Amino acid sequence: MTVADSWGVSGGGAAFLENRRDGLERSERIRILIAEDQPMIRRAFASMLALEGDLEIVGQAADGAEAVQEARRWQPDIVLMDIQMPRLNGIAATRQIVRDCPDAQVIILTTFDTDELIFDAICAGAQAYLLKDAEEDEILETIRAVSRGHSRLAPNVARKLLDEFRRVRRPAAPLDDGQDQEALTDRENAILQLIVAGKGNKEIAAQLKLAEGTVKNYVSRILEKHNARSRTELAVKALNRRAE
After folding, report:
1. Cα dihedral 52, 153, 94, 43 sign
2. Nearest to 138, CA basis, from 150, 130, 126, 127
3. Domains plus CATH for the chain?
4. Which pTM was predicted?
């Protein structure tokens, strides 16, 4: 079932929105802010998430400016962000939230999958990009995965990135975005290639026979060296690399 199947649910359905926390302590739940300008869709997302014991809705916003305000107020773990919203669009809101709330991870959830919007959203700091026709299970798994430090892309979005990557990639070359950057070590370059391939820290650790904590430290250094705010932005910088 997709989220769209839930759009007709009344906001007053107390039984449907019953908070089933399954004994989880508040500190263990993933705290979520929903930013969506369509009230019916916003209620559908809230209805779906309220049924999950490990998720907690801490705020809702009807436009991008309100999303930034609510993110600053509640410091959520996850922001579900629409793109086309009044006052401030979702990409501009994402950029401000990533800057002001470094622990918040943004998941774009939209009906648009144009190349320009995808690249702009990822460069703004979004960790995932899904379409609103995604299955509920896919949205829930993405929320949980992103909260663990992973990135997720809708299949057609991932294909766009992979196609572009294949077109422009030069093997085993460090990133170069035109700015002075500290060069990557051989180990960091190997880890970067696996990040671009969509591997999580656990998978990278297994493949390179390293401790997962060691991989996490390497990833932090790679992000710092290339002034990137997320693993996905690293991939985009690689995709945008061009031969002179």
Report:
1. negative
2. 130
3. 3-153 (3.40.50.2300), 169-239 (1.10.10.10)
4. 0.62
